Amino acid sequence: MPVVFRYQGYRFFFFSNEGDPLEPCHIHIRKGGAIAKFWLKPEIQLAQAYDMSPTELRKLLKIVEQNKKLIEEKWNEYFRA
């Protein structure tokens, strides 16, 4: 499970074997027992979330938007290697 980065106790990561065929580029975010998943394409949007408030999800959406390029680079490095 490659971790892309950490921010204020949140871990931004993806699973190395998720989906067959592989799901499109996305990022999982976990803090404690709370988790969210955001699709990056065709546009950034929330896929699912558990135990996260709407305020927290809006904050995470902004962080994903700010780090979209990094997330895509790490995704491509991992899956195209």
Radius of gyration: 12 Å
- Overall average residue pLDDT: 94
H/E element order: EEEEEHH
**Class by alpha and beta content:** alpha+beta
Adjacency order of strands in the biggest sheet: 1-2-3-4-5
Bin the helical content.
Answer: 25-40%
Distance between the termini: 15 Å
Total number of domains: 1
Number of strands: 5
Name the shape in a single word.
Answer: globular
Written description of the protein model:
The protein is an alpha+beta fold. The chain has helices at residues 54-66, 68-79; strands at residues 3-7, 10-13, 26-31, 34-39, 45-50. Strand 4 (34-39) and strand 5 form a beta hairpin. The longest helix has 13 residues, at 54-66.
How would you briefly describe this protein structure?
The protein has two helices and five strands. By secondary structure, the chain is α+β, with helices and mostly antiparallel strands.
Supply the key terms.
81 residues; 5-stranded antiparallel sheet; globular
